[in-house]
Amino acid sequence: MSLTYHLQIVNLLAALLLLISFAMLSQRRIVGLITLFAWQGAALTLSTGLIAWSTGQHHLYYSAGLTLLLKVIGIPWFFFRLVKKLDVDRDVEPMINIPTTMLIGIVLVIFAFNLALPISQMSGTVMRSTLGIAMACVLLAFLMMITRSKAIPQIIGFLSIENGLFFAATSATYGMPLVVELGVALDVMVALFVLGIMSFQIRESFDSMDLKHMEKLKER
Amino acid sequence: MTTGILLQIAQTLAAILLAPLLMGWVNQCRAWLQGRSAPPITQPYRTLRKLFHKDAVIAHNASPLFRFAPYMIFACMALAAGIVPTIANDLPFSPAADVIALVGIFALARVFLALAAMDIGTSFGSLGARREMLVSFLAEPALLMVFFTASFISQSTELPIIVQALAHKEFVIYPSMAFAAVAFWMISVAENARIPVDNPTTHLELTMIHEAMILEYSARHLALIEWAVALKLFTYSALGIALFLPWGIAPQGDPSALPLALLAMLLKMAIGGAALSLMEAISAKLRLFRAPEFLGTAFLLGVLGMLIHFLLEV
Q1: What is the pLDDT of residue A89?
Q2: ipTM of the shown complex
Q3: Residues of chain B numbered 173-192 and touching chain A (CB < 8 Å)
Q4: Residue B289: domain span
């Protein structure tokens, strides 16, 4: 291996991202989930900043700053308030039990690594080998959305998908153009507000945050 | 060669003699963290001396296996302590067993302990033995996964070569070893009967695993088992240091590095013991049926480490 030290650290952070994704998958409490989401954002910020520093891509600094503001400070703060207001911090049993979910997660990781192999060989960046990890993060976040029935874990899963995609973009092509990134950030903000208001509405109509109740909604 | 053999004997003896000290240090740290006044650090030695001076009481229906098991368990742990490089690397004894055989040595000790626990026929003994088997059959594959990750990096299952590759070559960050380290920590907590899997201080039948197995032992037999438990903790710590923090272990044929190696080993053990007691102080014991989930997570981390090695480090 002839990678420089900061790239080795980026590799380590990529591994950490995957670890946090698994931790989110196994987390039973909503507050723990939000904290883990904030940590994922922090790892993402650090790795983006390091890539920007080591490759001299200045626009990545803005992306890193945006990630820090939005995903480490803004969104977790919003969620903590939401959880407090809705009073939903209890243990949530996922629909599939956790060890099985983890095993499915391993299969997904193997699938993602194999899927990313040919793509990363085409890419010319120094960070191309972490593409597999980014795709694995996306798939694990999908899995989390599928296995949870409550609204807030599903929203966090959705935002965590965005984290994975962001990391994929950074590792495959040194990030998207700044305009696109700003647009995505705005989208995430808007989605967050819409979902936040919607969770109040769900709660108001069904007296619960369990989305299973919505399946029963049928016209008579 | 003679210095090698002398060094081997010195290292094994040091492990056997220092093991109760590590146990005493962990107990002391835990007492401090829980706000109790701590027992002296030499308390395990005093307990051992007291036990060796007592007369043994053995049940009438005990078979010879029951008397034989403590010696066997102690011998297994002493053998394992001799194989793992704690101070000096590549001693004459270490080719005797690679990491896979080392797992086998631990398993041998465990089988004898479980058999001896079931030998008397008390309900506690067989209960403890069954629980121990439940925990260990889940921990063993996870431990092997951790060793495989280290072996893939160093291209060998021999501990001296692994240490050589990790400590004395150019420094490289291995993300896979970070996963393996977390997995190894969880496994060693489970294997050494510590919180959150087992509580070494309780005698409540709902929760105890290890203590239930050794309830029938007394005097010198109990002393040997307690000593073996301390030695097991020491060996696992040495193993963790050799795999994840190997800097400082003296390379082969370099006696001048030995004093520093001894100092580094003591320092790392002290920090590791303090960390262990901190983790014990801040976590609650898991329900017995959550233990498979805990160890399943350890196995998962081991597998992930291996996958990450293939993705990032080849």
Answers
A1: 67
A2: 0.75
A3: 173, 175-176, 178-179, 182
A4: 2-313
